[in-house]
Design a protein that fits this description.
Pfam families: adh_short_C2. It comes from Methylovirgula ligni. InterPro entries: KR_dom (IPR057326), NAD(P)-bd_dom_sf (IPR036291), Peroxisomal_Beta-Oxidation (IPR051687), SDR_fam (IPR002347). An 8-stranded mixed β-sheet has the order 3-2-1-4-5-6-7-8, sandwiched between helices. The two termini are 29 Å apart. It has a single domain, classed as NAD(P)-binding Rossmann-like Domain (Rossmann fold, 3-Layer(aba) Sandwich), CATH 3.40.50. The chain is α/β, with parallel strands linked by helices.
């Protein structure tokens, strides 16, 4: 008996590298999986119905149960159809894992409105839509679990990804808002920041030796390492865990801190620009450095 025996999960982006690993990992723990993937290219264009079908076939070939959806979860109407399909074909719904995403990388002053809106639509609006569509069912059955894929690009930073960073950081707010609003219905909501080789990071530049080394490290990080944490977080064993941000990096699992006040300035007279000019240096040593993800995760994965 696996941790998810008798459970049903929806995985958006369920046929990509990480999504496929998660879909197969959930199935290995006994879950029936609705594999949702439109089969788009990295920038969100095109459609290929094959990948989702192949992942579902892998699950079925391994003795599991699976269904396929190629609807875009970014549309609320589609999201409601996806949830209805899980309930109808697979007989229930206990977790939603939102991994679907695209990239439209560009340095900010060259980023187009389409670059901005298309990325937010898939990551953030898609996360909202599929979560909102599942919420009434979770409330009615008094239980459910969400996992949203965020990124260290949002938590720390990367060049040329202001749209992606904004979308992934917004997902953290969405996940925590759901955790607060729905805990009375025993619904949990968490985020994961997976560091694994996938098409979402295959576009990283490799022009310098440092960039090449970074990509080599990332290529050693298997998407399969992400699946166990997701399976655990949506299982009953994690019933007390909600509103958290986890990371996965090969065999490492870590918990991210979340913004809280770390140092204060106070004056009984209130503040003026001139007095702030004088006192602000007192906070400077606690400022967060302007770093990229690669400058924080400097050690080799094991």
């Amino acid at each position: 008996m696996g941790l998810l025996e008798g459970k049903v999960a929806i995985v958006t982006g369920g046929a990509g590298a990480i999504g496929r690993a998660v879909s197969l990992g959930l199935a290995a723990e006994g879950a029936a999986v609705l594999v949702n993937d439109i089969g788009a290219t990295l920038d969100g264009t095109g459609r290929d119905l094959g990948p989702a079908k192949r992942v579902a076939e892998e699950i079925i070939a391994g003795g599991g149960r699976a269904a396929v959806s190629t609807l875009s979860a970014s549309d609320l109407g589609n999201a409601e159809k996806i949830v209805a399909q899980a309930l109808g074909e697979l007989g229930g719904l206990h977790s939603v894992i939102h991994i679907a995403g695209i990239l439209r990388d560009n340095i900010f002053h060259k980023m187009t409105w389409e670059d901005w809106t298309s990325v937010l639509d898939v990551h953030l609006n898609g996360g909202y839509a599929i979560a909102r569509a599942a919420a009434p069912h979770f409330r009615q059955q008094n239980g459910g679990a969400y996992v949203f894929a965020t990124s260290t690009s949002a938590l720390i930073g990367n060049f040329g990804q202001a749209n992606y960073m904004a979308a992934k950081m917004a997902l953290i707010g969405l996940a925590r808002g759901i955790a607060l609003d729905m805990r009375r219905f025993n619904v949990r909501s968490n985020c994961i920041a997976p560091l694994a080789w996938s098409r979402m990071i295959s576009s990283l530049p490799t022009q310098t030796e440092a960039e090449k080394l970074r990509v080599e490290r990332l290529q050693r990080m298997s998407p399969d390492k992400v699946a166990p944490l997701v399976a655990y977080l949506v299982s009953d064993a994690a019933a007390e865990i909600s509103g958290q941000i986890f990371g996965v990096r090969n065999n490492e699992i870590y918990l991210f801190n979340q913004p809280r006040p770390i140092r204060t300035l106070h004056t009984a007279q209130g503040w003026a620009p001139a007095s702030l000019t004088e006192m602000m240096p007192a906070l400077r040593s606690a400022f967060t450095p302007l770093e990229q993800s690669s400058e924080v995760f400097t050690w080799d994965p094991v």
